Amino acid sequence: MDGAPRAVRRTSPPRSGFLMKPVIAITTGDPFGVGPEVCLKAAASPAVLEACRPLLIGDRDYLLRVGKGLAGTDATGWPEVSMTALEWGSKQGSDAAVRSWPEGPAIHDMGDRPESPPAPGPSASGGRSSAMYVKQAVALARTGTAAAVVTAPISKEALRLANVRYPGHTELLADLCGLEFGEVAMMFVTSDLKVALLTVHLPLREAIAAISQEAILARLRLLQSEHRRVCSERRSATSCRRRLRRPGRPASTRPAPSPPTPCSGAPPGGSSTSFSPCSMTRPPSP
Q: How large is the average pLDDT for residues 26-49?
């Protein structure tokens, strides 16, 4: 009927980008250590591929040679997604280094062509390459291209031979993120236990001498601040999930989650020495 309102069918935009799994930047570590082999096997794991799109950062030709010697790990078909070469003099590396790919593992080719050492053991070539890989991974994470960074083992002796002034990952990552070493902590996390180190990369005698009440309190304040931030983010995420529940959707039969444990204690810069970290357990989804 003329003049009557008509239903208009609209075509929704494709949701493939929204549904794409996150990119995890994986540095392959010292080329002459166990890093390349471990990373290739991990990137081909069905469990890893179910959760993310692993992006191996290293020399593609070298990784392909290593992959040929591994059963069930043929990386020749993995896409090479580099868009720009690493600026060797840049602290942050390239800030827009990869193009998107739909799924599966991919390789960011650094093109550093590591030179095999004349004898087994740490080498300057391995130290230079491993530091470059970390710098590139951090650049991808800071610009949002990668959702997280995973690092393979590096050799501290190789870093020294390459005149890299960082003794390990912790100091390198702190500097790349614009933080002082005292503003970061190395933490080991499991579902039931979280342990932060008070000292790192020190001989035993120096590590013992570095322990003091001031150092312990500074580390506790840092951990308290981080616990508060994580708890706040998880409370916000839980609240968003509840608000986004569609009208008319059947209510869940599961019991309602308990309210998050409040974070108590003095602020990081306060004078109180109390430390009461909140629960780091992820609340159940509504």
A: 94
Number of H helices, E strands in the chain: 9, 8
42/152 Cα distance (integer angstroms): 11
3-class state of residue 108 by DSSP: strand
Residues 165, 61 share a domain:
yes
pLDDT, tens digit, for every residue of 57-109? 999 999 999 998 888 788 888 988 876 544 433 333 444 557 778 889 999 98
**Same domain as 189, residue 147:** no
127, two tokens: 């130290």
Domain boundary among 143, 164, 182: 182
Q: 3-state DSSP call for residue 242?
A: helix
Strands 275-276 and 264-265: antiparallel
- Say if 250 falls within a structural domain: no
- Report the half-sphere exposure of 189 (CA within 13 A, side-chain side): 7
**Structural domains of the chain, count:** 2
Nearest alpha-carbon partner for 129 in 111, 146, 141 = 111
pLDDT tier for residue 275 given thresholds of 50, 70 and 90? very low
Q: Give the Cα separation of 226 and 101 in Å (integer).
A: 33
